[in-house]
Each structure stands twice: as structure tokens, then as C-alpha cells.
Design a protein that fits this description.
7-stranded mixed sheet, about 120 residues, mainly beta
């Protein structure tokens, strides 16, 4: 059974940093594509970053240059390092995975975590 558990969210001031983690179980993450998405109430889920089976990252336009996605296959964990955070980066951050599809479209992913809240204050 595939399970994704996010952690590392919290409150930070603008300009600060956070590192999110997504611990995966039920599969080995070097066989799956994985991604990070975020959502605020009333808006659609927005792509933040994805990483394919070979570790090649792709980033959403709004975060490019400020975030780094990576994964540790030995720990079956994906990370999202976020720097120079802005208030508009706030939201619930979700980890996603799929065995077949990759990329920045939420509909590509068949498995989702429960999310972790990120709040960025001015």
C-alpha cells in the first residue's frame, strides 16, 4: 500500500527558508515520479516541483530559482528546500507520486499525501 507522509511545514518570515520532507512507503521512489504541489483555499492545486525516476527536476515558474527538489533513494524520501520565501508561497504543500506519469500536472499523479501547512508572514 502506497503511503506518502509530509513533514517540515511551519511558520516562517518572508525571506526565510524551510525544508519539507516526503517519506514514502509501499514503493521504492527510484521507480516512481514524485512531485510537490501547493494549494490555498479557493484556488486550484499549483505545481511547485517534480522529480523523475532518474532524479531530474522540473520547477514551477513561480518558484524557479528559489526551491530545490531532491530525493534520497536509500531513505525513500523526497525533499523540497525552499529559500527566500514569500507570503504567496504559503499554503498546504502536498507530496504526490506516480509509477507512470511525471511532470507538473496534478492530474498525472495517483498517490497523494495529507499535506503540510506552510505559512509565510511579512
Amino acid at each position: 500500500q502506497v503511503q506518502l507522509v509530509e513533514s517540515g511545514g511551519g511558520s516562517v518570515q518572508a525571506g526565510g527558508s524551510l525544508r519539507l520532507s516526503c517519506a514514502a512507503s509501499g514503493f521504492t521512489n527510484n521507480n516512481y515520479c514524485m512531485g510537490w504541489f501547493r494549494q490555498v483555499p479557493g484556488k486550484e492545486r499549483e505545481a511547485v516541483a517534480s522529480i523523475d525516476r532518474h532524479g531530474v527536476p522540473t520547477y514551477g515558474y513561480s518558484v524557479k530559482g528559489r526551491v530545490t527538489v531532491s530525493k534520497d533513494n536509500a531513505k525513500n524520501t523526497m525533499y523540497l528546500q525552499m529559500n527566500n520565501l514569500k507570503p504567496e508561497d504559503g499554503g498546504v504543500y502536498y507530496c504526490a507520486a506516480d509509477k507512470v506519469f511525471c511532470g507538473l500536472y496534478a492530474s498525472n499523479y495517483g498517490y497523494w499525501g495529507q499535506g503540510t501547512q506552510v505559512t509565510v508572514s511579512t
